[in-house]
Design goal:
435 residues
Length: 435
C-alpha cells in the first residue's frame, strides 16, 4: 500500500464516517414546510443509527434511556427524536433514488483511500457482483409496488426485493455496496417486475455514476442472456457470467463435442490449498443458436478436493482466455459468491436483521429503510477495513455479533463523547491495550 493511502486509511474512524454521512444527509432536499419539528437529516440519521447499533425493531430503538439520547446526540448528531409513526410518515415520502446516489459519493471516498486501487484485478478491473435479495415479505401488508406470489391455497404473498451491485475481490474480505435497484412493480405495470428488468435499470444508472471506472460484472446464470451481455458491452464494460448445462444447452453441446474431437479447446491444471483444478476453455463461440452474433469465451472448471469430491463450475466471459489468465478469471467468477456470503448472509445473520419488517409504508418506506441499512453495512465495512481500533476491539470480543451487543449495551448505560470512546471502554473491559 502506498504511504499516502496508508495514512488516509489509518485516519478512518466511525466518528468520521458518521460525520461525513451526516453532511450528505444535510443535502437531501426536504419538501416539507421549513418549521417542521423534526429535521429530515435527524430522521435519516435516526434510522441509520438504529441499523448501526443493530436494533431488532424500530419500537425497541424508540424506547431510549437518557444515556442513549445523549449518545445519539453526541455521536450521531441527532437533536430531536421523533415518534416512530412520524418517522415512518416522513421517510415514506423520500425518493429512494436520492439515497442511491450517495453510494457513488461513498465510492469516491474508497477511491481517495486507495481501496479501489487495491481491489483492481485482471489488469485494472473493478469486480462488480450483482444479485437480488428480498427484504420484505407479508401476506397482509402490501402496496401497489409489491411483487405478488399467488399460492395454490389462494393466499398471496407480497414482497419487496432489491438488486445490489457490490465491489468484491477474490482475496479481500470486505465488500462495498456500489449501487441498488428495487425489484418492484413499476408504475402502470400489470405484471411483476423481475431481476432482468431491474438489471437493465441498474446498469443504465451505473453507466452515468461509474462511467470512468473499468467495470467487470460477475453474475449468476440468470444474467447469461444476450440482452444483458449487449447492455454491458454497450458501455464498454466486461463480464464473467455463470452458465449451466440445463439453461445453456448449446454451449455445453459445443463444449462436449470439442472435448470428444479435441478441437479448439485447451486444458490447464492448477492446484491450491489441497484442491486440484482442471480448466478447459475455448474462445469465440456463440452464446446460443438464437443469438449467433453474440460471441463469448467459455471456461469449464472441475474442482477435486482432498476427499476426492468433484464440483463443477462454468462461465462465459468477454475476456479472451489464455493459459496465463484462466486461473484469475476462474477466481473472479467464484468471487461472485461474496455478494451472497459476505453481503446478504451478513445482513441476515450477523445482527442487521435485514429480513425483519421495520416498516412498509405506502410509497417508499420499505425501500428507504433497506438503503439506510445498506449504508450502515457499508460504513461498517469501511471501518472494518481501515480502523485499527475497530480491528483490535473486534479481535478481543471475537465475533462481530458480540461486538454489536457490547456497543449497544454501552450506549444504554453510559454517556460517551464519541464512538472511539465506546470502543476504548469496551477494550478496557476486555483488558485490551489500544495503541
Amino acid at each position: 500500500m502506498k504511504t499516502g493511502y496508508k495514512t488516509l486509511q489509518d485516519a478512518i474512524s466511525y466518528d468520521g464516517q458518521i460525520s461525513q454521512l451526516r453532511q450528505q444527509f444535510d443535502q437531501v432536499k426536504d419538501k416539507r414546510a421549513a418549521n417542521c419539528s423534526y429535521s429530515l437529516p435527524d430522521l435519516l440519521m435516526s434510522v441509520f443509527a438504529m441499523f448501526s447499533l443493530k436494533y431488532e425493531s424500530l419500537l425497541d430503538f424508540e424506547k431510549q434511556s437518557d444515556a442513549i439520547k445523549i449518545n445519539l446526540k453526541n455521536i450521531f448528531g441527532i437533536e430531536n427524536f421523533s415518534s416512530d409513526s412520524c418517522l415512518r410518515k416522513v421517510l415514506d415520502k423520500i425518493d429512494w433514488k436520492v439515497l442511491r446516489n450517495l453510494f457513488k459519493k461513498q465510492f469516491d471516498q474508497l477511491v481517495e483511500l486507495g481501496i479501489v486501487e487495491t481491489y483492481e484485478y485482471l489488469g485494472g478491473y473493478t469486480l462488480v457482483s450483482v444479485d437480488g435479495v428480498e427484504h420484505f415479505s407479508s401476506k397482509k401488508i402490501h402496496c401497489d409496488c409489491c411483487l405478488t406470489k399467488k399460492h395454490k391455497n389462494g393466499e398471496i404473498t407480497y414482497t419487496h426485493s432489491m438488486l445490489c451491485a457490490v465491489m468484491v475481490h477474490p482475496h479481500e474480505a470486505e465488500v462495498f455496496v456500489m449501487g441498488t435497484e428495487p425489484i418492484q412493480t413499476q408504475d402502470g405495470a400489470k405484471k411483476n417486475d423481475c431481476e432482468q428488468n431491474a438489471s437493465k435499470r441498474l446498469i443504465d444508472w451505473m453507466s452515468e455514476a461509474y462511467k470512468e471506472i473499468k467495470l467487470l460484472f460477475i453474475e449468476d446464470a440468470l444474467y447469461s442472456t444476450a440482452p444483458n451481455i449487449k447492455r454491458i458491452r454497450k458501455y464498454n464494460w466486461d463480464f464473467i457470467l455463470a452458465v449451466k448445462p440445463d439453461s445453456h444447452t448449446y454451449l455445453f453441446r459445443i463444449f462436449t463435442l470439442n472435448r470428444l474431437i479435441n478441437k479448439s479447446i485447451e486444458v490447464h491444471y492448477y492446484e491450491e490449498k489441497g484442491n486440484k483444478y482442471t480448466l478447459w476453455f475455448f474462445n469465440n463461440v456463440s452464446l446460443n443458436e438464437s443469438n449467433p452474433l453474440v460471441h463469448v469465451n467459455f471456461i469449464y472448471c472441475e474442482q477435486t478436493n482432498s476427499k476426492d469430491k468433484v464440483t463443477n463450475f462454468s462461465w462465459v466471459t468477454s475476456l479472451e482466455i489464455t493459459t496465463g489468465n484462466v486461473v484469475e478469471i476462474m477466481k473472479a467468477g467464484r468471487a461472485r459468491w461474496k455478494i451472497e456470503n459476505e453481503t446478504f448472509n451478513t445482513l441476515k445473520n450477523q445482527g442487521y436483521h435485514f429480513e425483519h419488517n421495520y416498516g412498509h409504508g405506502y410509497e417508499s418506506l420499505s425501500c428507504v429503510f433497506a438503503h439506510l441499512m445498506l449504508f450502515a453495512f457499508l460504513t461498517d465495512q469501511v471501518v472494518q477495513r481501515c480502523s485499527k481500533t475497530f480491528q483490535e476491539v473486534r479481535q478481543a470480543v471475537r465475533t462481530k455479533v458480540k461486538l454489536w451487543f457490547c456497543v449497544r449495551a454501552a450506549f444504554t448505560l453510559k454517556e460517551y463523547p464519541s464512538f472511539k470512546d465506546v470502543y476504548l471502554d469496551i477494550a478496557c473491559r476486555f483488558v485490551v491495550q489500544i495503541e
